[in-house]
Design goal:
Elements lengths: L3 H11 L6 E4 L7 E2 L3 E2 L9 E2 L3 E4 L13 E9 L14 E4 L11 E4 L9 E4 L9 E2 L10 E3 L7 H9 L4 E5 L3 E7 L3 E2 L10 E2 L2 H11 L3 E8 L3 H12 L4 E5 L9 H6 L5 E5 L2 E2 L3 E7 L4 E6 L3 H19 L9 E5 L3 E2 L5 E10 L5 E5 L8 H6 L2 E5 L5 E2 L4 E6 L1
Parallel strand pairs: 6-7, 13-16, 13-17, 14-15, 17-21, 19-24, 22-25
Antiparallel strand pairs: 1-12, 2-12, 3-11, 4-10, 5-7, 5-8, 6-9, 18-20, 20-21, 22-28, 23-27, 24-25, 24-26, 26-28
Helix pairs in contact: 1-6, 3-6
This protein binds adenosine monophosphate and magnesium ion.
The site of magnesium ion has 6 residues, from loops.
Amino acid sequence: MRSVDEHLAEILATVRTLAPLEVELERSLGTTLAEDVTTPVELPPFDNSAMDGYAVRSEDVRRAAQESPVTLPVIDDVAAGDGALYAVGPGHAVRIMTGAPMPAGADAVVPVEWTDGGKTSVAITRPAPAGHAIRRAGEDVHKGEVVLRAGMHIGAAQLGILAGVGRRRALVRPRPRVVVLSTGAELVEPGSMLGAGQIWDSNSFTLTAAVREAGADGFRAGVVPDDAAVFLDQLDAQLVRADAVITSGGVSMGAYEPVKEALGPLGTVGFQRVAMQPGMPQGFGVVGDDEVPIFALPGNPVSSFVSFVLFVRPALRKMQGLPPETATVRATTATALRSPPGKRSFLRATLAWSPDGAAVASPVRGQGSHQLAALAAANALVVVPEDVTDLPEGAAVEVIPL
Ligand code: AMP
Ligand code: MG
């Protein structure tokens, strides 16, 4: 048996970060940037008004007060997007809107709230100091400055600044395309009637959703019966669009283990027992001319999901060019725990914070690897190390939030 860490190390040594690709701006969400992005212009590109109001020379409104307003003639009106040239001479005002270019000569904007809002002349009741309510050219970023660095994950705000510096395309590490195949003669599609001995296929849905939650593109290729030849055919058909493949089922010690039967002889996929619970039987390797990584996960629903969290998710992060996650939480266990010797266990639990801020993990009822309902009721995995078999209530534990 190999350890969880050894198995993960082999996986991470095998999977490669995807080659950079130029994509349309809209397609860049959820990808990792593969270039430093600079701005080709000052941002903002020109001095402009931060408020709706009046562009003035601050010295002209220095004495403005509630009881003795300063009244100035309004000589022009400038809206956002107006490209004409305006100027404010001594003793004049220009009505200006938020985002409109500052007229020459003006050094302050008096907010409309400090005035009577006049259109031909305006009475101003408060002084606006020089620079007031003006957004200066380049005060966000200067021309040529880096706004996003290679390696950054593109979320909504990062996509926004790409657009904000005028980019239509960006060089990114694309979202990995991951094909998910379930195997099992007993499986039928949810929504259809269950016959004798049948269950609904849940793994292909869980795993495809988990792929998407991990920021990759999941394709559910559906169910394959327990037939190695059919499995190989299906796999072959799917490989063209896959950066990685996940299968579930068919990797244990029984008869009718199509994944093991089909992939074992290739010599590029290893099947081993990993010292963990749930999820002991694991297959991993590469298939096809492009050496596409394949994760052959066990069929029990909790086992396949936990295997995804431990092995596939870190691999997808590496493929995306993202650093490993280190997000485990220290908590205390609300009940005593048992764990088999020699295996690292991942017990399904609910993680909550007590009023004093301490994290408490309460294992859920139903720790069988088939008990999907218990997994769905949990929001965390309590990690019990290989050499620990008993933990008392209140013991410190490491927890993986789900
Ligand atoms: P296997 O790894 O193929 O021996 O399957 C182990 C257990 O997981 C069996 O009880 C299967 O019926 C169950 N199982 C396998 N695949 C799925 C699936 N896609 N959805 C739900 N249960 C599954
Ligand atoms: Mg099976």
